[in-house]
From TrEMBL:
Pathway: Metabolic intermediate biosynthesis; chorismate biosynthesis; chorismate from D-erythrose 4-phosphate and phosphoenolpyruvate: step 6/7. One of its GO terms (biological process) is amino acid biosynthetic process. It comes from Saliphagus infecundisoli. It catalyses: 3-phosphoshikimate + phosphoenolpyruvate = 5-O-(1-carboxyvinyl)-3-phosphoshikimate + phosphate. This is 3-phosphoshikimate 1-carboxyvinyltransferase. Phosphoenolpyruvate binds at residues 20, 90, 118, 165, 340, 383.
Length: 429
């Protein structure tokens, strides 16, 4: 599908969607236990992939009006009857690959073309180190994957600079092993807030984890059992980033965002980033609301070591800002649904934006650019599509984005929300 966006002024009150990161973890955590009600989840293609995996391991997930009713497999996943298709969800694949290592038999996991290009090798190596069998069918550390268990736990070393999801997967699975799992990080941990999201959610389910001198540990024999048998998913700051950015570049009147409650999400850094570029932002933490108004933005330098999902949003803001916006510590951002560093450089380039791409950085030269409407490609990546939609608000002329349907991965109804803010847009097949 395609969406065409005309330069627009925005304003009004909208609600942020629930967190994708928390929803994935909550569904799987409920699956590891006897079950739980996951209230206010994100209902998206990615989170439904995790729900299907829980069902493949012997649980069940029923969608209700207020959330997901999950019946778990009580720490003993069954060997799936069929291949687990994780579709486009990298989070699903990494988290449930560790689940496969608990099953007494062999599990096969795969996904779409994009997911089959993403690295899984360090997690496979970790499962082997823990006594399981784990291999890539193509011998390149990428899906399809074949995993045979069960593992009993133990110590494992793993790099911390490829994906924090490896650590999350091992902590979640380790809680129901006999011996628990102690993780030694071989390199500095990137995207550290995502591990804190995991630890925060595990604590809510009654599972204790510890930070060691060189990594993390989880004791075995624990039970997943949230108070009152339910867990409520907070709002998503990755999605909030596009709403804040829209207000910062195009608000004729204040944009107010509901659902912005404090949590361990690293992407809450977008509040300080937008403010640091010059837009007036107010965050009422007690009520969970954000307010933002438009302003003349100035370029900044910002590291995305812990916030890789923010790079597309920051790049779009940089295209509007005066001066240079330099985004550093970005090498791991290349291993998402697409290479988001190159994708933003190329697609913003079609809009007349000058950028400089380095292996681990992207500089957007707002002062040397003329932001113009153009035909651009979302690269099959929800975050690229939404970031380009931000840039389109301030462009001179209409912008048409191919692949607009991919926003459903993390922000179903995104363009409806965009329209509620007053954006002039048209969707078509």
């Amino acid at each position: 599908m395609y969406v065409t966006i005309a330069p627009s002024s925005v304003g009004g009150r909208v609600r942020a969607p629930p967190s994708k990161s928390y929803t994935h973890r909550a569904i799987l955590a409920a699956g590891y236990g006897e079950g739980a009600f996951v209230r206010d989840p994100l209902r998206s293609a990615d989170t439904r992939a995790t729900a299907r995996a829980v069902e493949a391991y012997g649980g069940s997930v029923a969608e209700r009006e207020e959330g997901f009713e999950v019946e778990g497999f009580s720490g003993e996943p069954a060997v799936p009857d069929d291949v687990i298709d994780c579709a486009n969800s990298g989070t699903t694949m990494r988290l449930v690959t560790a689940t496969a290592a608990l099953a007494d038999g062999t599990t096969v996991l795969t996904g779409d073309g994009s997911l089959r290009s993403r690295p899984q090798g360090p997690l496979l190596d970790a499962i082997e180190e823990l006594g399981g069998e784990a291999a890539s069918t193509r011998g390149n550390g990428r899906a399809p994957l074949v995993v045979t268990g069960p593992i009993a736990g133990g110590g494992v070393s793993i790099p911390g600079d490829v994906s924090s999801q490896y650590i999350t997967a091992l902590l979640m699975a380790g809680a129901v092993t006999e011996r628990g799992i102690e993780i030694d990080l071989e390199t500095e941990l990137k995207s550290a807030p995502y591990v804190e999201i995991t630890r925060e959610l595990l604590a809510a389910f009654g599972v204790e984890t510890t930070e060691t001198g060189g990594g993390f540990a989880v004791a075995g024999g624990q039970r997943y059992d949230p108070p009152e048998g339910e867990y409520s998913v907070p709002g998503d700051f990755s999605s909030i980033s596009y709403l804040l950015a829209a207000g910062a570049v195009a608000a004729a009147e204040t944009v107010e965002i509901e659902g912005a409650h404090e949590s361990a999400q690293g992407d809450r850094a977008i509040v300080d980033i937008v403010s640091g570029m010059g837009a007036p932002v107010e965050w009422n933490r007690a009520e969970g609301t954000l307010s933002v108004s438009a302003a003349d933005l100035s370029g900044i330098e910002v590291s995305v070591a812990d916030t890789p999902d923010l790079l597309p949003t920051i790049a779009a803001l940089g295209a509007v800002a005066d001066g240079e916006t330099r985004i550093t510590d970005a090498e791991h951002v290349r291993y998402k649904e697409t290479d988001r560093v190159s994708a933003m450089a190329a697609e913003l380039g079609k809009m007349g934006v000058e950028t400089t791409e380095e292996p681990d950085a992207l500089t957007v030269h707002g002062d040397r650019s003329t932001l113009e409407g153009a035909a651009v490609d979302g690269r099959g990546d929800h975050r690229i599509v939404m970031a380009l939609a931000v840039a389109a608000l301030a462009a001179d002329g209409e912008t048409t984005i191919a692949g607009s349907e991919h926003v459903d991965v993390s922000f179903p109804g995104f363009f409806g929300t965009w329209a509620d803010l007053g954006v002039d847009l048209e969707e078509r097949e």
